[in-house]
Amino acid sequence: MANKPARVPTSKAISAKSRRYRDILYDVKNQVAWVTINRQRALNAFREQTLDEMIDALKTTRNDPSIACAVVTGAGDKAFSAGGDFYAMMRLNWTNAAMWNDRMQGLAMAIRGLPIPVIAMVNGWCMGGGHELALWCDLVIASENAVLGQTGAQVGACPTVGATQYLPRIIGERLAREMIFCARRFTAKEAVEIGLINKCVPRQDLLRETLAWCETIKSLSPQTLRMTKKSLNFESDLLYASWQHGMELLAHVWGSEESLEGMNAFLQDRKPDFQKFRIRNKQELEAYLEGCAKDLNAPPSMRKGARKNGKPST
């Protein structure tokens, strides 16, 4: 009989004092804050409320300086997070895009801005925005059954809220482009080899290993951890302009025909037909070029063959 992964430790005393959350579980045990996405039926995909709750929970760690580190994970054993919930993202468009994009950036900044290390404890699927969530964390420990990938190109979304910024710096430009352009996935073992995550362990050892890392962090200087995290973030903090640029690009993706085709195809368990957009775009370009050749880009009176003073122009 296969060993089942151990549950995240809980503390009744802390839980009673904590806020009431619907999409996540938040607990503090032995100076470690645990933030667990609790949407197992959706493979721990997140929606706007999930992002709000995670931001709130992580920021509350600032109220207790005895907390040495935080762990972000997903409930159950199937997924860390499958990324954004399609039923949430399909409601987005250029007008309301900031309602989603600002929350994504807000969570990333909350994680990166904490004065304590944040560990992603990854089990199962870690895809799309879920993988960007892991990228925002300081350390990543994954079980052998974890799969990490950026699926934006498969579903008509864009991983421009962390992946396009951080991946080239973590795994190199070539692999980053392959991961994004080709939607390449990596097993946890492969992810360790390319430097995408810190450690891969057997599934039954994931919690034990994470707790061991937490104990190590608890034994170290909180001042040094705070200062060095800020210093380590210096170069990537300079990418803030790229984040803003990426969010505006993403704003134009939400609600587009291609994004809706990709997400609908996933929900309908079929392959997306992105070719029809290439064919249509080609036809539109050909019509444009044909119009240029016919002088349709000039006033009617100035086009070839137009009559001037009752006579055809030459």
Task: Give structural notes.
The chain is α/β, with parallel strands linked by helices. The protein has two domains: 254 residues, 2-enoyl-CoA Hydratase, Chain A, domain 1, CATH 3.90.226; 38 residues, no CATH class. 47% of the residues lie in helices and 15% in strands. The chain has a six-stranded mixed beta sheet with strand order 1-2-3-5-7-10, with helices on both faces. Helix 2 runs parallel beside helix 4 and helix 4 packs antiparallel against helix 13. The chain is elongated. About 2% of the residues have low confidence.
Tags for this entry?
2-enoyl-CoA Hydratase, Chain A, domain 1; 47% helix; elongated; 314 residues
Number of domains: 2
Q: Judging by the overall fold, what is the CATH architecture of the largest domain?
A: Alpha-Beta Complex
The helix-and-strand class reads: alpha/beta
Overall outline = elongated
Total helices: the number is 15
- Determine the mean pLDDT: 92
**Distance between the first and last residues' Cα:** 89 Å
Question: H/E element string?
Answer: HEEHEEHHEEHEEHHHEHEHHHHHHEE
Helix content: 40-55%
Q: CATH homologous superfamily of the largest domain?
A: 2-enoyl-CoA Hydratase, Chain A, domain 1
Instruction: Please write the CATH class name of the largest domain.
Output: Alpha Beta
Task: Give the strand order, joined by hyphens, for the main sheet.
Answer: 1-2-3-5-7-10
Largest sheet: 6 strands, mixed
* Range of strand content: 5-15%
Count of extended strands? 12
In angstroms, what is the radius of gyration? Answer: 24 Å
